[in-house]
Amino acid sequence: MQCTIDRRALFSASHRYWLPELDDAENQRRFGACSRFPGHGHNYVLYVSLWGELDRFGMVENLSTVKRVIKQEVTNQLDYSYLNQVWPEFEQTLPTTEFIAKTIWARLAPHLPLVKVRLFEHPELWVDYRGNAMEATLNIKTHFSAAHRLALPALSLEENTEIYGKCARVNGHGHNYHLEIAVTGEMDSRTGMIVDLGDLQALVQNLVVEPFDHTFLNKDIPYFAEVVPTAENIALYIAQLLQEPVRRLGVELEKVTLIESPNNSCEIHCRQQVFPSISHTSAQPELVNC
After folding, report:
1. Which strand (E) or helix (H) includes residue 256?
2. List of residues 6+ apart from 170 with CB closer than 8 A
3. What does the pLDDT read at residue 290?
4. Residue 183 C-alpha from the chain's centroid
5. Which of 89-98, 109-118, 176-185, 277-286 comes out lowest in average pLDDT?
6. Which residues, in sequence order, are CB contacts of 168 under 8 Å at separation 6+?
7. Residue 178: which of 264, 267, 259 has the closest Cα?
8. Among candidate residues 190, 176, 6, the one with its CA nearest the CA of residue 89
9. Cα radius of gyration rounded to whole Å, the chain
10. Is residue 239 a contact partner of residue 207, using CB atoms and an 8 Å limit?
11. Residues with a known catalytic role
12. Per-residue pLDDT reduced to its tens digit, 213-271
């Protein structure tokens, strides 16, 4: 029997995004507030995922061993440190979340059967690294509030109620949607980044959050005049909106996760699909079945 187990660990550390070959103005332009001297800090949350066969004791790996290795190889060295100076790898490549995760993998891989390292810089920014050279997946989280009604225009209220229940009520209802966007790409060997985070956040803000926030989706977003705005269709439309613009940033849209409520969420795995190109001035882009 095979399975995956996860172990959480914590450390607090500071870092600075600063390249000595660039002048002050260029560092500020490229890295913004992250270039400020003497740096800034985070409470990092690390998840180490291990995979393997269950042994006769019912374990993939003895947890006492896992805890000892993570503490010895990672947290004892990184906790309350200035990351730029703590490990030699960070002298060549900036200690971004992406590159920290990669370096942690390299430190743990000789000792543990790793399948994934997930590192949270804060609750709205985290990285997944799976040991694939310089490739990593960067995840950002944001939110918007919107109302919707689940009903097919061609059906009666009774028929829609039979399908969608209370969600078919004529005046609609609202949610505080949480949106997670994952992009995958290659880390730059000097900056440690797969994409400019500010550019990615601005893209999601401009194409999704601003147009969707505080709207009645059925009436204010032309796409949903005929397409029922279920969580699945909203997530799919967001994936359609973002796929090509994200690619132009130099990364691939990996996944769109829409959390409608604590009880209801949807994931669109985007690299497994090719969506039609959407003009952001178009009122009715083509629907792709999910």
Report:
1. strand 252-261
2. 149, 157
3. 30
4. 7
5. 277-286
6. 149, 150, 151, 157, 160, 161
7. 259
8. 190
9. 22
10. no
11. 167, 214, 260
12. 999 999 999 999 999 999 999 999 999 999 999 999 999 999 999 999 999 999 999 98
Phi-psi category of residue 192: left, alpha or beta, with phi > 0 → left and psi -120 to 50 → alpha: left
Distance in angstroms (rounded) separating the CA atoms of residues 19 and 31: 10
Sign of the alpha-carbon torsion through 104, 105, 109, 111? positive
Query: Which position has the token pair 């005049």?
Result: 225
Q: What are the tens digits of pLDDT across the range 32-84?
A: 999 999 999 999 999 999 999 998 989 989 999 999 999 999 999 999 999 99
To the nearest whole number, what is the mean pLDDT of the chain?
Answer: 94
Of all residues in the chain, the percent with pLDDT exceeding 70 is 95
DSSP track, 78-106: HTTEEHHHHSTHHHHS---HHHHHHHHHH
The reported pLDDT for the residue numbered 280 is 53
**String of DSSP letters for 111-167:** TS-EEEEEEEEETTEEEEE-S-TTEEEEEEEEEEEEEE----TTS-HHHHHHHHGGG
Contacts of 173 (CB under 8 A, 6+ apart): 147, 148, 149, 166, 167
Q: Which DSSP category does 277 fall into? A: P
Instruction: Give the closest residue to 127 by CA, choosing from 78, 66, 200.
Output: 200
In contact, 106 and 130? CB cutoff 8 Å: no
DSSP label at residue 38: S
Q: How far is the first Cα of the chain from the last one, in angstroms, to the nearest whole number?
A: 32
Whole-prediction pTM: 0.92
Asked, as a colleague might, if the bond just before 38 is cis with ω within 30 of 0, I would say yes
Write out the two tokens for 193: 């980044």
